[in-house]
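Hi there,

I know you've been waiting on this one. I reran it after we fixed the sequence typo, so this is the corrected version. Both the input and the resulting structure follow.
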Amino acid sequence: MRVFIAIDIKDDNSINNMIRAQRDILAYARGAKPVSREQLHFTLLFIGEVNDLMLNSIKDKLSNIRFEPINVEYKGVGVFPSISNARVVWVGVDEHSAIRLKGIAKEVERLLLPLGFKSDKEFTPHITLLRIKDRIRDSMFTSTINKYKDVSFGSEILDEIKIKKSDLLPTGPVYTDLFNIRSASNYE
């Protein structure tokens, strides 16, 4: 099965604000694939294909993680890799949230490194809104991205890490929660 480690976005107000921006941007990004509201998340570490035995080892390692809940502010829209060659449109977070999320991602990677899992690039806290296949030539796309550059989409407290399975279907990926790890404050 294909798995990854994630933190889901759950706050309805924040999600609604992100979806409004997504629709606005999509008007100038023809052919882009929007991420559904149920699939908005931070990917802390992509694992890839594993068997049941390895999945159990991953669960065992991650059950040792301890983290405090994070009060996250969802802020700003950006693109990867560049505005002239956008492939992903994302929502970011404020600076304090970014530091905390990076710390959790590093701890996940540290715990899973003995199993051979390591990120191929530095973790950048982001929530994917759109995936773009073909180059966008509409100047309104850039203007719309810039319009949301500093916008706050809301906030929430994140207190749960998940191991998720990803099934790739012709209609798009379907995610299933396999294992949840709650923050340290949930153990008290």
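Quick highlight: Strands lie at 2-8, 33-34, 41-49, 70-80, 88-93, 127-131, 152-158, 160-169, 172-182.

Best,
R. S.
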